[in-house]
Amino acid sequence: MPRRLPFFLLTLSLLATLSGLAAFADPAGESDASTTPAVDAEVARGKYLVTVMACADCHTPKGKDAQPIPGMELAGHPADMPLPVWRREMFQDNILATIDMSFTAFAGPFGVAVAGNLTPDPETGIGNKTADELIQSWRTGMHWKEDRIVLPPMPIEAYSHLTDEDIRAIFAYLMTLPPVHNAAPKSVMTTMPGHS
Predict the structure, then answer these.
(1) Looking at the 3D structure of the chain, how many domains does it have?
(2) Residue 106 lies in a domain
(3) Cα 36 from Cα 41, distance rounded (Å)
(4) In sequence order, what E strands does 90-180 have?
(5) What average pLDDT score do residues 42-67 get?
(6) pLDDT digit string (tens) for 125-182?
(7) In sequence order, what DSSP letters do the residues of 40-102 get, joined into one string?
(8) Please, what is the Cα angle at 178 between 177 and 183, to 5 degrees?
(9) Whole domain around residue 47: which residue ranges?
(10) Residue 3: pLDDT over 80
(11) 100 with 78: CB under 8 angstroms?
């Protein structure tokens, strides 16, 4: 009675066969550049940074249950949702700012700051933007899609200290998100007393 091959030899044989089939399917040994280890590492770094920087806290709208709205991850303020209001007399009641129910729009003496769509949708998101434009925005404090400064509560001063590599990683990760077509309203900036 012939002896059976040990299990690990059978496994090795199966792996070798699968490798041969993979080489046959891609005889040049070329792989998609978007799945190289370097790209994967950059995207993973970007995901980590977006997570620890709490970008979703303001850019992912919440529902009435205070939970993220499914399918709207990092898609910004919902296009059909009203914006919060703030009036100067609110200072008398010690109110500096108001926030809408989705936690994606903020009103105060600076105006109304609206969290934008960070998904790669080409019309309403960042699909037509570049990493270089994001770097320029965070270095200068100027918005990368509108002709204005970046408004509170975005901590732009802190973000300005990120390295170019980290900002590129953030952008690379954002470009892997499912595109969401959501035209978040534009922010409205007001002139504060003493400022031009």
Answers:
(1) 1
(2) no
(3) 9
(4) 98-99, 105-108, 111-114
(5) 97
(6) 999 999 999 999 999 999 998 889 999 999 999 999 999 999 999 999 999 999 999 9
(7) HHHHHHHHHHHHHTTHHHHHS-B-TTSSBPTT-TT--S-TTSPPP---GGGGGGT---EE-TT
(8) 100
(9) 34-79+114-183
(10) no
(11) no
- Residues near 37 by beta carbon (within 8 Å), at least 6 away in sequence: none
Residue type, 182: N
Task: Kindly state whether residue 178 falls inside one of the protein's structural domains.
Answer: yes
Domain assignment of residue 192, yes or no: no
User: Which backbone phi and psi does 108 adopt, to 5 degrees?
Assistant: -165, -165
The model's pTM is: 0.78
Radius of gyration, alpha carbons of the chain = 24
How far, in whole angstroms, is CA 105 from its chain's centroid?
16
**Rounded to 5 degrees, what are φ and ψ at 106?**
-135, 130
Q: Does 24 reside within a domain?
A: no
Element (H, E) at 188: strand 188-189
- Contact predicate 129/86, CB 8 Å: no
